[in-house]
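4.2 Preliminary Data

To establish feasibility before requesting continued support, the project team ran the inverse folding procedure on a target of 206 residues. The structure was first converted into the token representation described in Section 3, and no sequence information of any kind was made available to the design step. The complete token record follows.
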């Protein structure tokens, strides 16, 4: 209990709260025990937290915790082209891209150009070929575009045989590649060409 000590200043009663000595010592002793317990907790478990943080940092540094490793592969080209299959090939340091698309435009088309690039692992790809389902050339890069119409619903294969590397790409790593396919309707002309942009996100195979 507190002890009240009264005093009088100019007819005004004042009082001062005072701890009894034994209660003050008990209070101080309890406080010190709690502080000591908290310090011991930090000393005991603080090292464990530090070790865990170091391990997480090491895993992140070596790419084990890279978010791309947990993302699923995908190949998307919107409704115009269905992506049936795809491949990113490391090819002994000279990467190549292959994908199979289906013409879902509702009409036959001519392919006039194909561009493939990636900011992550590839530069712009060259040596691009397009073949239809009969393995007939539907695009000739040297001839400035199409040589064979691709029918509605028909599958065609796009390959990019040479992609300049930007470094840091290894087998098993995942990379995102953008592919732009430019075409025009077989009943129209190249003056009315359109471009469909697709995206491949996949492991780089050996």
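Position-by-position output of the design step:
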């Amino acid at each position: 209990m507190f002890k009240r000590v009264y005093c009088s200043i100019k007819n005004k009663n004042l009082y001062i709260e005072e701890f009894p000595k034994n209660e003050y010592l008990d209070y101080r002793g309890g406080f010190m025990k709690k502080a000591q317990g908290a310090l011991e907790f930090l000393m005991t478990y603080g090292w464990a937290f530090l070790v865990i943080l170091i391990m997480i940092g090491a895993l992140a540094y070596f790419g084990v915790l890279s978010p791309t490793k947990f993302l699923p592969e995908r190949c998307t080209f919107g409704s115009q082209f269905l992506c049936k299959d795809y491949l990113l090939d490391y090819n002994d340091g000279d990467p190549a891209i292959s994908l199979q698309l289906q013409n879902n435009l509702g009409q036959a088309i001519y392919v006039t150009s194909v561009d493939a690039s990636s900011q992550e692992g590839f530069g712009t790809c060259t040596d691009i070929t397009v073949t239809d389902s009969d393995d007939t050339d539907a695009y000739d890069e040297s001839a400035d575009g199409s040589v064979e119409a691709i029918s509605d619903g028909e599958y065609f294969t796009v390959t990019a045989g040479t992609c300049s590397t930007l470094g840091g790409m290894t087998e098993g790593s995942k990379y995102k590649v953008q592919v732009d396919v430019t075409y025009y309707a077989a009943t129209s002309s190249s003056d009315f060409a359109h471009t469909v942009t697709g995206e491949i996100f996949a492991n780089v195979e050996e």
